[in-house]
From TrEMBL:
GO biological process: carbohydrate metabolic process; peptidoglycan turnover
InterPro entries for the chain: GH, Glyco_hydro_3_N, Glyco_hydro_3_N_sf, NagZ_Beta-hexosaminidase
Catalysis performed (reactions): Hydrolysis of terminal non-reducing N-acetyl-D-hexosamine residues in N-acetyl-beta-D-hexosaminides
Molecular function in Gene Ontology: beta-N-acetylhexosaminidase activity
Alphabetical UniProt keywords: Glycosidase, Hydrolase
Enzyme Commission numbers on file: 3.2.1.52
Lineage: Bacteria, Pseudomonadati, Pseudomonadota, Betaproteobacteria, Burkholderiales
Protein name in UniProt: beta-N-acetylhexosaminidase
Entry's family note: Belongs to the glycosyl hydrolase 3 family.
Protein origin, superkingdom: Bacteria
Domain Glycoside hydrolase family 3 N-terminal: 59-330
Signal sequence extent: none
Length: 338
């Protein structure tokens, strides 16, 4: 296995719908993979509830067994899961419950921090070290993707809740991820199945960045880019593929941590391209970690080959790949990115 290939595998972020570390995932880890996302089914994602079958099967011992198997092959890893207040909490069966959106809004900052701390203790005890939460989007209009799944309807309340979440998680040793930059205040279509767009100007987007700014000030470890296309740029470009938006995140919001994409095969992101080509575009734009949905995971080899070919063919700067892989290694090994 060449060093180039190992770097490529380090920037891939496959989603597992179960705790099974199967042959495909074992090969991915053997080839240099450093990150796994323990996801949920589509039905669980939409409902925000884990199935009864999953809750009965996925005990703390089952989590430990799966994670130890992965770590035995690859050492220290980024091991991630959703843990959202207003949406899906992947480890709801083995950690303390999170409050509803309304209940969380009524809590003081300290009260919410304590609740998030208790949740995060259970999550880290299971072996997860990165939450793909909290959500920093604030909605100002129609959004069928995130309706009812955000923390609050105003930046001030959302900022307060993001602060409590990150502080509570950090006390428990759980790293956190802000999503989905640069926010989706209004959304036309659903990004997973439509070429969805955000018809907001850059100034309109900036006006809703309070929770993102707060999270970055609190030391969040990662930021997930949004999947929709932003009409503030011509032509409209998906957040996960936008060099301009990632540059704004880095320079204007002074974020120094790990930048990850949303699912690369969301229709709004992939369009009519191959997942391999989109992966190359995301890296070139400045993303460090590329999220591959369960539907894209069988194409890991295709994605890896596309990135290798892009580097060898001069279409992707090897220094950009090196920087992305180093960001992943730093978070996996030390829990920080610079």
């Amino acid at each position: 296995m060449s060093e180039l290939s190992r770097q490529v595998h380090a920037v891939l972020f496959p989603v597992l719908e179960t705790l099974e570390i199967d042959g495909n995932i074992c090969r991915f880890l053997d080839r240099g993979g450093r990150s796994l996302l323990f996801g949920e089914t589509g039905e669980e994602y939409v409902s925000g509830q884990m199935s009864e079958q999953r809750l009965s099967r996925e005990t703390v011992e089952a989590w430990h067994s799966a994670i130890e198997k992965a770590k035995a092959r690859a050492g220290k890893l980024i091991l991630a899961a959703d843990a959202d207040i207003a949406a899906v909490h992947r480890l709801q069966g083995v950690s303390a419950k999170l409050p509803s959106r309304d209940a969380a809004q009524r809590m003081s900052e300290f009260e919410l921090e304590e609740v998030c701390f208790e949740m995060a203790c259970g999550v880290t005890n299971a072996g997860i070290n990165l939450a793909l939460s909290p959500t920093a989007d604030v909605l100002t209009g129609s959004n069928q993707w995130l309706e009812g799944r955000t923390l609050a309807d105003d930046p001030e309340t959302a900022s307060r809740m993001v602060r409590s979440y990150i502080r509570g998680a950090r006390r428990a040793g759980l790293k956190t991820t802000l999503k989905h930059f640069p926010g989706h205040p209004v959304l036309r279509g659903h990004p997973a199945k439509d070429e969805a767009t955000v018809p907001a100007s850059l100034d309109d987007l900036r006006a809703q960045w309070g929770a993102f700014r707060t999270g970055i000030e609190e030391g969040v470890s990662a930021v997930m880019m949004g999947p929709a296309r932003f009409e503030a740029f011509k032509p409209a470009v998906a957040g996960s593929l936008s060099a301009e938006l990632i540059a704004l995140l880095r320079r204007e919001l002074q974020f120094e941590g790990l930048v990850m994409t949303c699912d690369l095969d969301h229709k709004a992101t992939i369009g009519n391209k191959s997942v391999g080509n989109v992966a190359v575009e995301a890296l070139a734009a400045g993303a460090d970690l590329l999220l591959l949905s369960p539907n894209a995971v069988p194409h890991i080899d295709e994605v890896a080959t596309a990135i290798v070919n892009a580097v060898q063919g001069g279409k992707l700067d090897p220094l950009r790949l090196d920087a992305a892989a180093n960001a992943v290694h730093q978070l996996a090994d030390f829990g920080l990115c610079k």
